[in-house]
Amino acid sequence: MEKQQCIAMLLAGGQGSRLGILTQKLAKPAVPFGGKYRIIDFTLSNCSNSGISTVGVLTQYQPLILNSYIGIGSHWSLDKKAGGVTVLPPYVKNNGGEWYKGTADAICQNIEFIDQHDPNYVLVLSGDHIYKMDYSLMLDYHIKKDADATIAVIEVPWEETNRFGIMNTREDNSIKEFQEKPKNPINNLASMGVYIFNWSKLKRYLDADRNDTHSDHDFGKNIIPKMLTAGEKMFAYSFDGYWKDVGTIESLWEANMDLLSDHPTLNLYDRDWKIYSVNPSQPPQYIAPHAKVKRSLISEGCQVYGELENSVLFPGVYIGKGSKVKDSVVMTGVRIDCSVKIFKAIIGEETRIENGSIIGGEGDSQEKITVLGENIQISKKARVHGGTIVDTENCHQWGFCIGKDK
Amino acid sequence: MRDVMGIINDTMIKQDLREITSHRSTAAVPFGGRYRIIDFALSNMVNCGMKNVGIFTQSNNRSLLDHLNSGKEWDLLSKRDGLFVLPPTFRYDEFGRSLGDVDHFHNHMDYLKRSRQNYVLISNSNMIYNMDYRRVKEYYHQVKADIVILYKEETKVKDLSNFISIKTDEAGLVRDMAVNKEKSMSNKIALETAFMKKSLFIDVIDDCISRGYSDFAKDGLIKNLNHYKIYGYAHRGYVGKVHSILSYFQHNMDLLNPQIWKELFFKSGFIYTKIKDEAPVKYMGNANIQNSLVANGCVIEGTVINSILGRGVNVHKNAVVKNSIIMQKCQIAEDVFIENAILDKDVRITKGRQLKGESNYPMVIEKRVVI
């Protein structure tokens, strides 16, 4: 196979358990975001736009939706003769198979795949983050610094440093120390989970880590500290721009709301750095004569007869007359009938809300987010209080689960 | 329907679409915010299972070729069959006479003969409707027709000077047919779509050519009304024919009727088009939007009423767009007022300008103009 300078390994097997019912049937990278995307679109588009055309996508948890979504990568222009996208789930080997035990183990179990392409550098990415980044600039930096490993970092607010892996650097940006979720941070540069390694070097550390029974086989916890201890040349690459880990329902909701300000930091309208995704073949949205739409993001195929404020609509959403939707994220194919009030909610795909229902509180901004799972039908004039999570188990209190009881 | 090949005829040159067709053919005219007119004919064909579609183009075809690309968006990128774009040979014969559609078909006889399908469905490129052609094939076999032509029975008989009208008897046989007849003869308007055996289609072309005829409707069909069993099949849904600026404007505006929007875009299948990967539409805090169709990639800060917006249009603060069609990537600056206008692609209207056409004579601004 043709030799590649740099290939990407995209970790997409995470469950994202803190996203609750939103990740019951799909992996975190497949969670819908921003009116038409799935989270993984950002990393895949970054690869495509950065000229990295060989991408291994490591899947494990609930891979069905993710696998069929990625396909052969043509939606991101990654269906190439040399390389392209390869989905890499765990597989059975001579001596039996095993699950990916950690991020490093996932790469380790696919050494053969990487060796096929014989790259000089391997870019390790996570499919969980929302950001736009040119990896080719980071690769230039890595080469210029003659580094063994380069880790992308972003400044985070000091009070949040305890949620991240923090890099303590010297003046020349070389990494002195790595602190995982420090209580007393001495720096606020957080690792973005974007690494470039010299492949020959990384391979050696992966091989050693494989036999280390004390290891969690994790890049942040094991590989990076081991390389630092061994004195490898490691540099931090500073990124400034929008970057968000949407690990929880709150942060997913927030990241959606971030897009609604008049000039958001994450620009989705940049023609030189488009975010690609699988496009539904839906007609342009229809906004009816007496509808009101303010500070919102609406995707194709939607029909809006009611009022919409500060909300995100995915394709094919219907909002009936007299309904009011505020501060909410409404996913693909949801039907909201007439005179429904929705405040601060995330509504899952294909769910239907009948006439006169009230979802969420009455405008208290401190209120917790209400989540309706997918394929649920909320009966007429139901009242779903703020902060409620409605899933297939408890939905009979307000309605029923479509396709189960009907 | 795998046994039916589709032919879309985009060779007609005499069109009164003014500036809109100065650099593109009718097939490639933007329609309904994100589509080109040909998307309807093409999607109807693939939605009913046809796998081989040939498009007869005219010389002004760059825009159409760019739109069609490999045919992948219509699932016509295939190792077997697929999309065939057939270039025009000459626009005029050696005596300077302009060629008719029959000449174009004849010049690509190889394509017709080599295709393995036994039936052919041929449609003009300027018709807008959503329909399942399987019903047409069933009807063809049911009445044992030689040729089936599609028509729509209009309640109000309009001016027929831009239509093909037909008369049928109780059995459905076509008894009379006229092209662009000024005086009203029937309320049955042809959809300019016909279904027949491929061998018969080839015969009709051969007959026309050998007798010096060149117009498929006038010579191939009308002259053969007594020779072949030509049946009419009624389409009961919406039909639009784009033959003038006004009809173009009207059929776009018809999409603001939710019934028509639903029928045209969902009834017998989706309408496919070239994908642009535009972000969802962004409405700012000051946006005011009513009764409009908005394609992805638009950013709306001003007021938009009764309008159709193409992909990636920006309407800035305090700008007002009313009763207008704004095509792809137009920029409408602050304080602009636009009413009854058609803005072609990439037009920029600078701050404070006022553009106003009449509802029966919309103002047309040519592609890439800056005002």
From TrEMBL, chain A:
Keywords on record: ATP-binding, Carbohydrate metabolism, Glycogen biosynthesis, Glycogen metabolism, Nucleotide-binding, Nucleotidyltransferase, Transferase
UniProt-annotated binding residues for alpha-D-glucose 1-phosphate: 100, 165, 180-181, 191
Annotated family: Belongs to the bacterial/plant glucose-1-phosphate adenylyltransferase family.
Subunit: Homotetramer.
Cross-referenced NCBIfam families: glgC, PRK05293.1
Pathway: Glycan biosynthesis; glycogen biosynthesis
Annotated ranges, domain Glucose-1-phosphate adenylyltransferase/Bifunctional protein GlmU-like C-terminal hexapeptide: 291-364
Species whose genome carries this gene: Anaerovirgula multivorans
Protein name as catalogued: Glucose-1-phosphate adenylyltransferase
Enzyme class: transferase
Pfam family, one: Hexapep_GlmU
Annotated gene: glgC
CDD domains, alphabetized: ADP_Glucose_PP, LbH_G1P_AT_C
Entry EC number(s): 2.7.7.27
Functional description taken from the UniProt entry: Involved in the biosynthesis of ADP-glucose, a building block required for the elongation reactions to produce glycogen. Catalyzes the reaction between ATP and alpha-D-glucose 1-phosphate (G1P) to produce pyrophosphate and ADP-Glc.
Catalytic activity: alpha-D-glucose 1-phosphate + ATP + H(+) = ADP-alpha-D-glucose + diphosphate
GO biological process, one term: glycogen biosynthetic process
Occurrences of domain Nucleotidyl transferase (ranges): 8-260
Site feature Could play a key role in the communication between the regulatory and the substrate sites, where: 60, 99
Entry's Gene Ontology molecular function annotations: ATP binding; glucose-1-phosphate adenylyltransferase activity
UniProtKB/TrEMBL annotation, chain B:
Keywords: Glycogen biosynthesis, Nucleotidyltransferase, Transferase
SUPFAM superfamilies in alphabetical order: Nucleotide-diphospho-sugar transferases (SSF53448), Trimeric LpxA-like enzymes (SSF51161)
Single GO term (MF): glucose-1-phosphate adenylyltransferase activity
GO biological process, one term: glycogen biosynthetic process
Domain of life of the source: Bacteria
Positions of the Nucleotidyl transferase domain: 17-178
Domain Glucose-1-phosphate adenylyltransferase/Bifunctional protein GlmU-like C-terminal hexapeptide: 287-354
InterPro entries associated with the record: ADP-Glc_PPase (IPR011831), GlgDAde_trans (IPR011832), GlmU/GlgC-like_hexapep (IPR056818), NTP_transferase_dom (IPR005835), Nucleotide-diphossugar_trans (IPR029044), Trimer_LpxA-like_sf (IPR011004)
Family statement drawn from the similarity comment of this UniProt entry: Belongs to the bacterial/plant glucose-1-phosphate adenylyltransferase family.
Name used for this protein in its record: Glucose-1-phosphate adenylyltransferase
Organism annotation: Anaerovirgula multivorans
Lineage: Bacteria, Bacillati, Bacillota, Clostridia, Peptostreptococcales
